[in-house]
From TrEMBL:
Naturally occurring in which organism (per UniProt): Aedes albopictus (Asian tiger mosquito)
Localization: Cell membrane
Record's protein name: Major facilitator superfamily (MFS) profile domain-containing protein
PANTHER family reported for this sequence: GH07001P-RELATED (PTHR48021:SF1), PTHR48021
Residue stretches making up the Major facilitator superfamily (MFS) profile domain: 30-457
Chief location of this protein within or outside the cell: membrane
Length: 473
């Protein structure tokens, strides 16, 4: 065969491959752009740690903020996130995934402006509530968008972008704390939603949304953008139409949903995992990391210590994406929860010794750093993402519209409880008592996973439903 013929054959083969599978790069770009909203959410989650000491102890804003006030400022964002869980689902169906996310730029921007220009506690609380609403919406909308735009071969990878970008957002706040004032830090964070909006504006709408609205031409145009102009989108459009038709025919009410044995058992497992995830104390650690290191007298600058935590969280989350489908969900949850319990036991023991006699811990400044780093790593590797992953695995498609927002509301309200009560627990029990409580809950969570949570690795969604229907939880 002559060289030109070989080249022509190779080109035709390459074109046929592109038609069949599509280009991956545009999908990655769209997934990263959508995850910019998760980056914005990460900044409001991380903001509390570097802000507490300047606002409460140094009165940087010029008006008094008590520890009780700050517990409300830190926790009210979780209420905002819980409140938006159901409305964002309605908004995504009415105006589309893209415009639902773009509309969240406004509450994020107003929230940061209220914090930058705050002259009283009420303005700070209002700003934090709006940040929670905007950021919480992204935690639901962005994974939905990335799942719908991605081909199956890269859907898992794109699905990890949101969680990874949340950790990047937290690390970003820890890193730019050095700029000086809390107002300047907040102003920098306020620029992120604007950048997100400017980039995501040029991304395509989800083709699945267009199929929902019977806009087949727009769906084809979206797929061409995402898969490349050589891609033959007809087969995928037919698949989307069949999936949408099945979704409409299988639609049930929430009362019918709660009468299904598999759904009830899946709900017990999912909400149980959410409970132990939040009651492990993760949000207390993230929101009050600077204070914890300051109390520990580690010898490290508190800002340096929190940056270390942020880096570990980001790296561990990245590592989690590589092992979730190689190691079982249950074994990872067991290991994660057990080592989180050991970490909080170590923290509790350290602070109890410190409360009795500070000289006993003069040479143990490394212990709280090591314990918190282990806690963050174990949480990020599995107990952070797996409960959300299992919400998608345990429920059948026709009930997810009800239970996914319910799981989100439950999770965010628990996060509010832990963040709000941590200061009160610290005052009532001492910081050691608070960590003893978290460690006890984590040990109970380990037992819950061992007894109740099934292994779903390598099992089809259909088989999971059959397993839940016959197993006793």
């Amino acid at each position: 065969m002559k060289a030109p013929t070989l080249i022509k054959t190779a080109l035709l083969f390459r074109i046929s491959q592109m038609k069949e599978s599509g280009r991956k790069f545009p999908q990655v770009i769209a997934g990263l752009a959508a995850s910019g909203g998760a980056l914005a959410a990460g900044t409001f989650l991380g903001w509390t740690a570097p802000a507490e000491i300047p606002l409460v102890q140094k009165h940087e804003y010029g008006f008094p903020i008590s520890a009780e006030d700050f517990s409300w400022i830190g926790s009210i964002s979780n209420v905002g996130a819980a409140v938006v869980c159901f409305p964002i689902g309605i908004l995504m169906k009415s105006v589309g995934r893209k415009w639902a996310m773009l509309s969240m730029v406004l509450p994020l921007l107003i929230g940061w402006m209220l914090i930058v220009f705050a002259n009283n506690v009420t303005m700070l609380m209002a700003g934090r509530f709006l940040l929670g609403a905007g950021g919480g919406a992204f935690c639901i909308a962005a994974p939905t968008y990335t799942a719908e735009i991605a081909e199956p071969s890269i859907r898992g990878t794109l699905g990890t972008f949101c969680e990874l970008m949340i950790t990047v957002g937290i690390l970003f706040v820890y890193a730019v704390e050095a700029v000086g004032s809390v107002r300047m830090l907040s102003a920098i964070c306020g620029a992120i939603p604007i950048v997100f909006g400017a980039i995501f504006f040029f991304m395509p709408e989800s083709p699945y949304y267009f199929i929902e609205k019977d806009r087949e031409t727009d769906a084809a145009r979206s797929l061409k953008w995402l898969r490349g102009h050589l891609y033959n989108e007809i087969e995928e459009i037919e698949e989307l139409k069949a999936e949408e038709a099945k979704s409409r025919s299988d639609k049930i009410t929430i009362l019918q949903c709660l009468q299904q044995r598999a759904t009830i058992k899946a709900l017990i497992i999912s909400l149980g995992l959410m409970f132990f995830q939040q009651l492990s104390g993760i949000n207390a650690v993230i929101f009050y990391a600077t204070t914890i290191f300051d109390d520990a007298n580690t010898g490290l600058e508190a800002s340096t210590a929190t940056i270390i935590i942020g880096i570990i969280q980001m790296v561990a989350t990245l590592l989690a994406t590589l092992i979730v489908d190689r190691v079982g969900r249950q074994i990872l949850l067991l290991a994660s929860d057990f080592f989180m319990a050991l970490s909080t036991i170590a923290l509790a023991g350290y602070f109890q010794l410190k409360e009795c006699n500070e000289t006993q811990v003069e040479n143990l400044g490394w212990l709280p750093v090591l314990a918190l780093c282990l806690f963050i790593a174990m949480f990020s590797i599995r107990y952070g993402p797996i409960p959300w992953l299992m919400v998608g695995e345990l429920f059948s498609n026709n009930v997810k519209a009800y239970v996914s927002p319910l799981a989100g509301v439950f999770n965010w309200l628990l996060a509010f409880l832990v963040t709000k009560v941590f200061t009160n627990l610290r005052d009532a029990l001492g910081i050691s008592g608070a960590f003893w409580l978290f460690s006890g809950i984590s040990l109970v969570g380990t037992a819950f996973v061992f007894v109740v949570v099934p292994e779903t690795k390598g099992i089809s969604l259909f088989e999971i439903q059959r397993m839940l229907s016959r197993h006793i939880v």
